[in-house]
Here is the input.
Amino acid sequence: MTYDIAKTFVLGGALSMAALSVQAESFNWASTTDPQTMDPHAVNSAPVLSFLNNIYEGLVRRGQDMSIEPSLATSWEPLEGENGWRFNLREGVTFQDGAAFTSADVMFSYERASNEAADVRSWFAPVTEVRVVDDYTIDFATNAPNPLFPSSIANFMILDSDWATANDAALPARDAENYATLNVNGTGPFMVASRDPGVKTVLTPHAGWWDAATHNVTEATFAPIGNAATGLAALLSGDIDFIQPIPLQDVDQVESRDGFNVLEGEETRVIMFGFGHEHDTLLYSTDVTDVNPFQDPRVRLAAAHAIDLASIDRVLFRGKIEGASQLVPAGISGFSEANSDRPAYDPDRAKELLAEAGYPDGFSFGLKCTNDRYINDEALCRAAASMFAAVGLNAELSTGPVRDYWTQLREDDFDMYLLGWSPGTFDMEHPIRFLLHSQDDEAKLGSWNFGNYSNARVDELLPLVQQEIDPAARQAMIDEIVAITQEEVAYIPLYTQPLIWAAKENIDLTQRADNFFMLRWVTVN
Amino acid sequence: MLAVAFLAFSLFRFVGDPITQMTGVETSVEDQERLREELGLNDPFAFQFARFTGDMLNGDFGFSYRTRQPVAEMIATRIPATLELGFVALLISLFVGIPTGVYTALRPRGVATQAMLMLTLIGVSIPTFVIGIMLIFFFGVQLGWLPTFGRGGTVNAWGWETSFLTVDGWRALILPAITLGVYQLTLTMRLVRAEMMEVMQSDYIRFATARGVPMRRIYFKHALANTMVPVITIIGLQFGGVIAFSIVTESVFQWPGMGLLFLESIRFVDIPVMGVYLVVIAFFFVLVNLIVDLLYVVIDPRLRIRDVS
Amino acid sequence: MRDFINRHEGLWLFTRSPAVIIAAIVAIAILFGALFAPWIASVNPYDLASFSLMDGLLPPVWQEFGTERFLLGTDDQGRDMISSILYGARLSLMIGVSAMIIATTLGVGLGLAAGYFGGRFDAVVMRIADIQLALPAILTALLIDGIARGILPTEMQQDLRVVVLTLAIALSLWVNFARTARASTFVEMNKEYVQAAVMQGQHPLRVMFVHILPNILGPLLVIMTVDLASAILLEATLSFLGIGLPADSPSLGTLIRIGMQFLLSGEWWILWIPTLFLVALVVSINVLGDFLRDVFNPRLR
Here is the structure.
């Protein structure tokens, strides 16, 4: 699997290797949110998984370019005679408390992570049975051929069964804390020296780590800083060495100062507008109340043509975004090269389409957006509303914090809405499953398809995509899905969210496209 | 306090849905529903409130939805930071506010007085967060003299996490304390000034002047001492306000106190933490009120009623 | 003229203090600008079609790339700063003044009644006032916001944001009025003419509003001025914390919140111009408040 969006930035130049010395190097970094728990199975959220990947490890892990590489498993192959995968485990690995790692720990972690109390259990939905073959071999049987399974469990982290059981943490804590909420015992390169939730967490290297350390950090301190200006000020004043992310508008300012570097990349998150396909009427319209014009693909296309992405890029994003044609960015496996054009900015065409659809004077509708979820989300929606207005689509914009946003969307309380989607498996199948397949609570499909976009052919193709082993045949099916959904304007994909980190000049680190920050690639010069 | 608890609890039901904040994108609707059931979020409102108060009276403050930690512990670890910040802010306001207040009262027509009065007016007119940001920008980023966030080094003294015992801790304290103190300072100065001017016109001072007591002695012994009674009580009352208003300062400086915890809880719809925070704040307020009321009666039996604004 | 001024001590004081004169001019100018914003401003920031992202982030006219179309520059949406500020001041003043009026009515009403009736009613009102004081303004506003969210259907929430915010601010300010009114009422109640009125069997409302209220107008006016300033600041602070008004109906506070994103980025005008404007407005209101205090309380001069 290749992944070319990820870029490795070597900041300090060639000198870096010389600095791999034994001297004490402390490293301070900050991000916007604190990982809410130290339990790797309790919460499926990026801040938690990103942080814990420094401490715990999975059977496989992602490299600097997002490729899957061996971690606690040295190799894996499809099972013979049935669907599923066999993992051959690494020998001689020890947990941070000194206990040895065996297949029993994998079995235990599987049971823990697939339990009802775990938030990550959806990863194991295709798994029918897990069998320990011997101390260093374990089989995962699946309900159908599942070529993506090994890469889909890169964040499935392994706990020590004895440690968890002895400390009463055999299951993830749900409504109260348990030992694993605050304490860790992984196999990874770092361990927690102290933790003050919401204030700071200090990590120290795990001397017994099985892999050769490529970092030179002797103590790393993490602090959450919620206010972006405060965070940037902390970097510029020298209080911290590295921060993720920094606001786009501050990039020039940081670059112009001596001693700092900005790392620019692209996340895998695509920002898009969605429609209430299923709604029979508009909820927020003052002039069209008997029908839902967005059920007409021409109206949806008109909305797409109304967006002036170049201006959005120039003013709001300082030229840092790439337009998106589909629900994943180029470089993600399954990306449809054949359908990589997005609707051009063409307000005249938009007006024509509206007239064809029977709305020559446009109409008003409600646009829902978050104001604290994505980069510049509120500004984007204000700009988009103004662009829609220019072709006669009068958006009644309502923005709010994400804390009650999903609830509103689940209650179908929108005409058009903003959504960002990052494919958790780094494969196109992920957004097809969550955003394009018709809502099906039973089969847990289309669970984030709020407007219930529904196309029988897409629904039919999804299971075939999931099971197809032959890459060319699989890609052909995905291309067909992307073509259908572009034709029908299921969503208006806008752009890939940029990923901006900033660090002091003497820090070498790697920016991975999933926005995970790995301490093991840090060098302090 | 029960009223505050009730308010707090009833209203936070509406802040948002905690479940969507507790779970990841891939969690199924059924799993979310089951969690909601487990947390008792589907129970009737009255029942939930009764449980909340009942648990609280038993000293059980519940667990945070977000971090799954006991709320009592979370808030307890944050109390020192807020109290220390409030305390230093108060000290700043006293040590600057009282002398300037006295000065401006004694020289009401002086140029310096007019300048100071104008400055304090501007001081109360700039939103706290703008002051904080300006200080960060100037002393942190431009000059690089002082840290811009957090508490710096802290020392655990008998279970109390203090930043008073390290140089680092003091350095981190300066900017937030000034930010929080500016408003109080203005208030103190104006109060001292008003009281002082009033006292200076009283018969008692006039009599002392007539008797030929040295002016310096009059100012600082007789007049100031008389001024202090109402000033101290009112400043005591203000302390409750300082604690509560530190929310803004804590947010700007990422100061790990109760206010920051509260703001984070709002963001994550962490209802138990929000509820307990409000009750704790109310408790502080009631406590301070009580102490001040007692002082008031002890020191000044006439129980004067005074406009604090 | 001189005689007239001398006879009216307040006016005399007024002419003697340049700061007060300047403050009055600034306040009146801002008030005027805010009232007539729709006629003065070149762009209506509420009308999405009237501005374009293409004009975004232009600096004020005296800087490089500034244009005469936008004398004080534009924000990230391409909105003219002057227009935004005028409309913002309009909204801020509207919220501030309405909040102050509601707080005054509520506070004075309750305070008078508490002072007049005393006893249990007084105790209850003052207890409520204590609870109110225990909840800082920020929290009160947050709670009101929470109730509104719970009670009102979503589609009404947007429209009623301003009302909710006003109520929230009003409810956090009424206590001062109530306390002052109550204290003054206690004092006035002991005076002979009030006693006489009560004896005559006059209606309590008449006693309160005809005999007592006029005597406490002075201090109330002072509090009203100071609280108008607090209300405007409170709105700004709430907006900063993200619980104020949404970005498409920009008050001064919301403008500052938006501007905060550009604090370190070089586009200083988006933050500092509205901030300066807000500070100028609040300072002048406070100066006037101070002045009124001096007029009504000559002993402090």
Q: What stands out?
A: The interface with chain C takes residues 228-229, 232-233, 236, 247, 249-250, 252-253, 283-284, 308, 311-312, 314-316, 366, 371-372, 378-379, 382-383, 385-390, 394-401, 404, 408, 413 of chain A (CB under 8 Å). The longest strand of chain A covers residues 260-275.
